[in-house]
Design a protein that fits this description.
Largest sheet: none
Distance between the termini: 35 Å
Order of helices and strands: HHH
Structural class: mainly alpha
Shape: elongated
Radius of gyration: 20 Å
Strand content: under 5%
Helix content: 55-70%
Length: 96
């Protein structure tokens, strides 16, 4: 919903990979910070190193995941998977 509102209500497959990846990275950054907001470091590692080890991979994976979701969306649109009635006529089933 946030992407839909921020991107002026464009459809998901109309967005660019760069923008979707950036939104995914922002989401990963926010999710990666959750363990550090309310807790304390109970390991011998410095907090900055622990943050880097957790937030970095989550941010990168979220950006890649967002880009992959966009690629699947475009592929589905290209193959007409989003049109539920497209396959109905092929098998001889009709409405009504």
């Amino acid at each position: 919903m946030v992407i839909w509102i921020a991107e002026r209500r464009r459809r998901f497959d109309e967005l660019s990979f760069t923008r979707v990846g950036a939104w995914g990275a922002v989401a990963g950054l926010l999710v990666g910070m959750v363990p550090f907001v309310g807790g304390s470091n109970s390991t011998n590692l410095p907090t900055w190193l622990l943050m880097f080890a957790i937030i970095g991979p989550i941010t990168r994976l979220s950006a890649v995941s967002a880009g992959g979701s966009l690629a699947l969306s475009r592929r589905a649109e290209k193959l007409n998977f989003l049109d539920a009635r497209a396959g109905v006529a092929k098998v001889g089933v009709t409405d009504g």
